[in-house]
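Q: What structure does this chain adopt?
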Amino acid sequence: MRSAELSALIGERLTSARAVRGLSLGALARAAGIGKGSLSEIEGGSRNPNLSTLYALAGALDVPISWLLAEQAGAEVSSPGIHTRLLAATQADDVTVEVFALRLDPGPPHRSEPHGAHVTEHLLVTRGRAEVGPLDAPAELAVGEALQWRADSRHGYRALDDAPAEAVLTMWWRRDDD
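A:
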């Protein structure tokens, strides 16, 4: 899927979710911690949101990030130092499982804000070495090693060494109706 097509789909999904929840553009922008102008451009499909922005919007709307990506296998989203490609997204009852291919570039770590108590991440390193997990308890992983954590606190991803690291990231998103 081309970037322009994905941006348009993301914009449509955001506009729809915001309307269903009765949120103004400004209210969603505040809840996600992004600028109102940026959100307007994303909803209009004229701006490609980065991975951090998509997670902020998904968290504010209480939806899985794959829903914003219209469950399009192959959808790619990046932020500085991290590149993701959605491999699959499935939903059964109140659980969504998302599977991403992840590439971490050498350099500064990627920091991710909490996704909520209802999200669990499981990362398996397939190439290189990486430091991943909650910021207060990260783990160094090599090829074939994995870590699972609840994504309700800030967490990060960082390639170790001077080469990219690759991994498969699986996220379980459980609807929290409480």
